[in-house]
Amino acid sequence: MTLRPLPLAAIVTAALLAAFSGTQAATPAPGAGEASPAAVVEQLDPEECAPIEIVGVVMEADPERGVIVVAEREIRGLNAWVGGRALKTQYLDEAGKPRPRAFFRKGETVAVEGFRHPEGFVAATRLQKLEKRPPQPRASFQPVEEARRKSPRRPPAAGAAGTPAR
């Protein structure tokens, strides 16, 4: 799981949402309810939600219920009017082309942008599949004592810096 600082665009978007929404909570956009009602956020109050960006692996993907879990966070779609603007989740492939929500599978690496809701889930504005990265070599670790036993220390050569000459 990787949580990164938000890009300036996400911060500006959140500020605009808060400025245009005033104290009025968002209302459902037309066509809401395409997926399971629990999986789509139809009301969003920007004053209660913080912008978030996550890059992680899909841990669960259930297209029937519309549930996607990334980095131990439930990702929900967004389909609401906020401050006169319609916000709807964009589901994108590696090339940035629109795909259905069911496109995402367990084990894939994705980038998520959206809002962290006070109830703990993320209302996503964008969910994009990322290209697979080649596996990175793992660093090996040995406790210091074990490493010393495996490679006995050799005495320094005569005349080396810091050693007396004989």
Question: Would you kindly provide a written description of the structure presented here, covering whatever features stand out?
Answer:
This protein has a single domain (2-129), classed as Beta Barrel (OB fold (Dihydrolipoamide Acetyltransferase, E2P)), CATH 2.40.50. It is mostly beta strands and 166 residues long. The chain has a five-stranded mixed β-barrel with strand order 4-5-6-10-9. The protein is elongated, with a radius of gyration of 25 Å. The model is unreliable at 15-35 (pLDDT under 50). Helix content is 13%, strand content 34%.
Q: What structural keywords apply?
A:
166 residues, mainly beta, five-stranded mixed beta barrel, OB fold (Dihydrolipoamide Acetyltransferase, E2P), elongated
Distance between the amino and carboxyl termini: 58 Å
What structural class do helix, strand and pairing data support? Answer: mainly beta
Q: Helicity level, as a percent range?
A: 10-25%
Number of helices: 2
Indicate the radius of gyration in whole angstroms: 25 Å
Helix-strand layout with pairing:
Layout: E1 2-3, H1 8-21, E2 27-28, E3 40-41, E4 50-62, E5 67-70, E6 73-82, E7 85-88, E8 90-92, E9 109-116, E10 122-129, H2 144-150
Parallel strand pairs: 3-6, 6-10, 8-10
Antiparallel strand pairs: 1-4, 2-6, 4-5, 4-9, 5-6, 6-7, 9-10
Quickly describe the structure.
The protein is 13% helix and 34% strand. By secondary structure, it is mainly beta.
